[in-house]
Amino acid sequence: MESLYAITTGVLTACGLYLVLRSRTFPVVVGLTLLSYAVNLFLFSMGGLTTDGAALINGVKEYADPLPQALVLTAIVIGFAMTAFVVILAMRARSEAGNDHVDGRKHEVGEGRR
Amino acid sequence: MSTHLIVLPVVVPLVVGILLLFQRQGSVRLKRLVGVAATLALLLISIALVARAAGGEVTYYALGDWQPPFGIVLVLDRLSAMMVLLTSILALGAVVFACAGDDERGSNFHGLFQWQLMGINGAFLTGDLFNLFVFFEVLLLASYALLLHGGGKERIMSGVHYVVLNLAGSSLFLISVGMLYGATGTLNMADMAVRLSELPAEHEGLVVAGALMLLVVFGLKAAILPLYFWLPKAYAAAPAPVAALFAIMTKVGIYAILRVYSLVFGEAAGPLADLEQGWVWWLSLGTLAVATIGALAARDLRLLVAYLVLVSVGTLLAGIGIGTPAAVSALLYYLIHTTLVTGGLFLLAEMIGTQRGKAGTRLVKGQPLRQSGRLAVLFFAGAVAVAGMPPLSGAIGKTLLMATAEGAQRAWLWPILLLSGLAAIIALSRAGSTLFWRSTGSADGQRLPRRQWFGVAWLIGAAPLMVALAGPLVDYTDATAEQLAHPETLTGALLNNEGDAP
Q1: What is the predicted pLDDT for the residue at A60?
Q2: Looking at residue A96, what is its pLDDT?
Q3: Could you say which of A42, A71, A74 has the minimum Cβ distance to residue B175?
Q4: A42 near A27, Cβ under 8 Å?
Q5: Looking at the DSSP assignment, which residues form a beta bridge with residue B62?
């Protein structure tokens, strides 16, 4: 289970990072969302992965760490608010600048080589 | 009441911000009155906090009476008390300045302003790594909205960069907090410090990775060399009172570096002690050099001040890079000075821009200033202070810092710091002579409102005041640095009731 979990988190992070580096705002927003999913998964695993662990310690050895769950909940709420904000901001930027590039201007083809 | 004093800098702005929501469309006068009164109350509270912390005792406030290391705590020591006081002094100047009319360019300025204060104060007071993240988010979310206050293309475009970068930074923060929790099993910073001293060797790599990723996050907030590109544009585009308040935001990053690496990765951490120092030292010198070039190249007064903020970030980080208690004390003195003076200069730039009409703050020929005499005096005082020329406070701060550098560090720091001071003098005198002397046409700008004069004079007045009170101030920062160098007082105060479980 650990390797599957690690691969999932890694693929999500890689996709998120790639999209964040794109030049249009929509992929960037999607990339940030993917990154926050990856982070939530990562946080969830930080107390160690246990299956069928008791939520409350009652003398048993196997138990699920309750703290990461609380932290993930906080992170989800904050991430949700931030995503909503960045979507609105991207729309405002689109209407103000007239295009959806993060720099506010269209790059010409081959501009970097000039 | 006095037991709850520590939590008031967080609760008061929160409650006031919520109350102001009800009056979002209400009378302007009422909103301003509430905003200024709350900031004034914050100032009084933080003075009481400093008075309590000055004795050297570390006190904490356990929310819900869950004792550390299990509950969430707010910790009051000399450093956090000082930072909260600094925030409220800066905020008072900014909020009074905003009452002259900037607050009505968009909606709900005062509520957002209070929430920003809540986030900043919380970040300074918290003793818990995850709550540091939460308060960072609170202050960032408020700052996003404040940066966009009033709208306009410039603000929105720089806002996009600022928001996206900080969201990526938040992800990184969570990852590093997760790694540190996974390795040590705690989020309380004092408890983490204790557990690091008995860390099993196989977890060491995890902790180093987590700690250095935290440095990236704090570096993004503090605007260290490769991570500063968002700052000049965002600060130059923000409304003046917001830009002035943002002067403390880079210092939140500096504070976090200082706190986390002195407390968690202090002497007790064994092989992990001071693992940030080498990085911070070289990056600080790079930041200084690049920011100096930026200041020389800036064609706009606001941009120039934004680059001067970066220069100050480099100077402060150099203090962390040296790392001795004397250097930390010097950097704390310089931190107070630079926060207030650069905040004042942002406000002053707005006033100059208003009176110059169409030319604004751009360094080109424009119409003469109507009240040029008074503005020039303030600009001159601010420029002397921020460039680090005697007799104002910048010179004292820089001298204290330079005196602590030894050997090879001295050979690097002295030339770069002194040259950046020279460059600041050149840039500021060029800006000043263009703004005040190169003018055509008639002065038909409006007379500036008294509230704006108060805001600027309040902040720039700190420079001569800090010279007059340099003795007691340096005594306090010396004691603060001493306290930071001995984190065991803090861990002892927080964790002493271990064992007698309820």
Answers
A1: 67
A2: 86
A3: A42
A4: no
A5: B73
Q: What ipTM was estimated for this complex?
A: 0.90
What does pTM read for this prediction?
0.93
User: How far is Cα B171 from Cα B185, in angstroms, rounded to an integer?
Assistant: 20
* H runs (alpha helix) in B148-267: 153-184, 189-196, 204-222, 230-237, 240-246, 249-263
pLDDT at residue A107, rounded to an integer? 65
* B162-194 per-position pLDDT tens digit: 999 999 999 999 999 999 998 888 899 988 988
CB B134 within 8 A of CB A74: yes
**pLDDT score recorded for residue B24:** 77
Q: For B159, which residue in chain A has the nearest alpha carbon?
A: A89
Nearest to B394 by CA among B350, B330, B478, B458: B330
Residue A114 reports pLDDT greater than 50: no
Contact A82 B167 (CB under 8 A): yes
Kindly tell me if the per-residue pLDDT of B208 is higher than 50.
yes
Crossing angle of helices B109-125 and B129-147, rounded to 10°: 160
Nearest to A96 among B156, B161, B179 (CB): B156
Count of residues for chain B?
502
Partners of B187 on chain A (C-beta within 8 Å) are 67
Residue-wise pLDDT for B74-92, tens only, equals 999 999 999 999 999 999 9
What percentage of chain B reaches a pLDDT higher than 90? 65
Contact B179 A46 (CB under 8 A): yes
Of B141, B159, B164, the CB nearest to A32: B164
Identify whether the C-beta of residue B232 lies closer than 8 Å to the C-beta of residue B310: yes
Sign of CA dihedral B63, B67, B73, B79: positive
**pLDDT-derived band at B57, boundaries 50, 70, 90:** confident
User: With contacts defined as CB-CB under 8 Å, which chain A residues touch B171?
Assistant: 32, 35-36, 38-39
Is B105 in the A-facing interface, judged by CB distances under 8 Å? no
Whether the CB-CB separation of B265 and B275 falls below 8 Å is answered with yes
The Cβ-side half-sphere exposure at B313, using a 13 Å CA radius, reads: 37
Read off the pLDDT of each residue in B319-331 and give the average, rounded to a whole number: 92
Q: Shortest CA distance to B460 belongs to which of B121, B94, B114, B108? A: B94
B70 touches chain A (CB under 8 A): no
Chain A residue with the nearest C-alpha to that of B182: A46
- pLDDT tens digits, one per residue of B210-224: 999 999 999 999 999
Which tokens go with B308? Answer: 């001067």
Q: Greater confidence, B68 or B332?
A: B332
Within the 126-185 window of chain B, which residues sit less than 8 Å (CB to CB) from chain A?
A: 130, 134, 137, 141, 144, 148, 152-153, 156-157, 159-161, 163-164, 167-168, 170-171, 174-175, 177-179, 181-182
